Give the backbone structure.
Amino acid sequence: MKSCYLGIDIGSVSTNFVVIDEDKNLIEKLYIRTQGQPIKILKEGMERLKLSIGGERRIAGAGTTGSGRQLAALITSADIVKNEITSHAVAALDFCENVKTVIEIGGQDSKIIIIREGLVYDFAMNTVCAAGTGSFLDRQASRLNIPIEELGGYALKSRNPVRIAGRCAVFAESDMIHKQQTGQSLEDIIGGLCQALVRNYLNNLAKGKKIEAPIFFQGGVAANVGIAAAFEKELKTPIIVPPNYDVMGAYGAALLAKDQVKNKGYTTFKGFDIINIEYMSRSFKCEKCANCCEVVELVADGRVQARWGDRCGRWSDVEQRKQVAHSG
Amino acid sequence: MGIPRALLYYEYYPLWKTFFEELGAEVVLSAKTNKKIIESGLTYCVNEACLPVKIFHGAVSDLIGKVDCVFLPRIISVAKREYICPKFSGLPDMIRSSLPNLPPVIDTEIKLRLSDKTLKEAFIYTGKFITDNIAKIIKAYHKALRAHGDFVAKTQKGVLPAQIFDGYRPPQPKGLKIAVVGHIYNLFDSYANNNLFKRLYQNDISVITPETLQTKIIDESADKLNKKLFWSFARKIMGAVIHFTQTKDIDGVMYIMSFGCGIDSFIADLCERKLKRANIPFYLLVIDEHSGEAGLDTRIEAFVDMLKRRKTNDSDLSAHG
C-alpha cells in the first residue's frame, strides 16, 4: 500500500482536506462548507476520503491548520498543528520557490505574507474587523440572490464601478444598499464592492509592506475573478492564482505533516477509525469566579477527552495532566 | 479609600498605596479585571472609548458600595514638557457623568508640565481629605516617593510589574527573546491581553518590556528622535525601541495596542519603521473585547514561527547560498 499524507484545514467557512503522495503530488482534495459544525464536517470528510482512497493508500501522517486546528488535531491525533500563516507560506513556496508575496483571503481572516529568500519575512492579519473577507462576500451574494461563484463574473462586466466604503462591513453594506436604491446596476455595485475590498486590504493590512512579484492569491476568495482583477488593477502587476488556491492551507499542512513524520519516524494519526467514534462537544459556564469562562469539553464515546476555554487552567490543566500520565 | 485596578494603577499603585496607608486610610483595590468588570465597563462607558478606559469604568463600579471614597486623580502630565493621553484629564468627569451612586471622589489634579514642584501641592491637597496634619502628609509623601522609587528600581532589575503585584513567578524560558511594548495597562492586565505573557512563555519565549530598561537608557535613546515626543508613555516605548535597534539583542518586538488608541496608532507606526530599518521583526497586536483565543493564538504562533525560521536561517548560511 502506498503511503500518503493528509492535511486538514478547518476554517470558518470551509473545511478542506488534501491528500498528497510521497512526491508531493495532490491525490485528493475536498472542499466542504463548515456550516458551523466542524466535528460533523470533519467526520464527513474523513468518510469520503476513506471511500475514495482508503482501499489503496495508507495515511502515513496528518497535519491540521485553520482556526479549528486544535479541535481537528485532538480528534485525529494529528502529527502537527500549524497556524495558517506558516501553512500557506509553505504551500506557496512548494509551488514556486521564488514567490515573494502571498495574499490570502479566507472566510473570516485576511492575511498578507511577505516572503524573502524562501522564508516568511513579515506578515499581517486583519485586526479586529473581518470586513472584506469571504464571509462578508458570501452574505452579500446571498442578499443579492446571486450564487457566490458568479459574483466575480458580475464584477468583470462592470463598466463604471461605483465607489463603496470598504473600511467596515457594516458601512459597505449600507453603502451598497443606498447605491442600489438609486438605481445603479448590479454589475457596477459588485464591481465597486470588489474594488473597495481590495482598497481596504491594501490600505489597512498591506500598509507599509513591500508587495513584490511574484504575487500569489490564495484562499477561498481567490475564486472571485472580480477581486483578482481589482488587485491586478491596483497593483499594476499580474496576480497568480495557483491551481489549488482554495485548499492551499490544507496542502501546506500535509507538506508539514510529511516533514514531521520523516523527522520523528512514526505517526500518531488515528486513521479512519475516528469515523466510528461518537464525538460530541459541549460547553458549560464555570462559576468559580467572576470570569464565568465558557469551558468546552470534547467527549469521545462518553469519555471526556479534552477541555479548553478556561482562563485559569482549572479545567484544561487537569485534562492535560491526565494525558501526560497516560502517555508516560 | 478605593483605587480602581486599571490604567495607571499599573504604574503608580505602590506610590498611592503607601501614601494613603501612611495617613491611616485603608486601601481597597477593585477586583482583578474579569468578565463582570468588562461588562459593566461596556454598559457605563461611552461606546467610542478604548478598552482600558472601559475597564477603568468597570473597576470603579466594582468599588461602589465597598468604599467611602474613590481616588480618581486628574492626571494631565507626569513630566516636564510632556503630556499623557487626553482621556486621562477628563477621566474623573467621565466617571462622574456615567456611573450612578458614586461615593465621594478625590480628583486631585496632577500637572507637572510646567514644573514638577506642583506634585507636592497635589499630595497635600489629597492628604487633606484624610487629615489636617500637614507634617504627617509630607512625611507620607516622601515615603510614597521612596516606595515608587523602589518599585521602579525593581522593575529595572528585570522584575515585571505583574510579578510585583500578583506574586506571579514567570518561568525562565531559554528560547527566543522578544520585547513586548505598549501602554503599561495593556501589557500587565492579563485579562485584557488574554494571558499574552503566559502564551509566550508556553512557546518558550522570554520577554522583556520597556519597564525593565534603565530610565537613563530610555532617555538617551528617546532623545535621538528629531523631535521630542510629548507623550510620556509613548516616549518610553519609543526610547526602548530605539535602544533595541542599536543593541539588537532581541529577536523581535510585539506591540500591544488597544483598538482606537490615538497615541498607539502614531507610535506603533513609528516603531515599525525604525525596527524595519534595523531588520528586527515587528508585530502589532490589536486588542479589544474579543474573548475568543484562536485568533490571538494564530497570530502569536505565526510570529514565533517566523522568528524561529528567520533565526535558523541566519545561522545557517549555506541553506540558500
Q: What stands out?
A: The first helix of chain A runs from residue 38 to 53. The CA atoms of residues 232 and 238 of chain A lie 6 Å apart. Chain A has a mean pLDDT of 88.
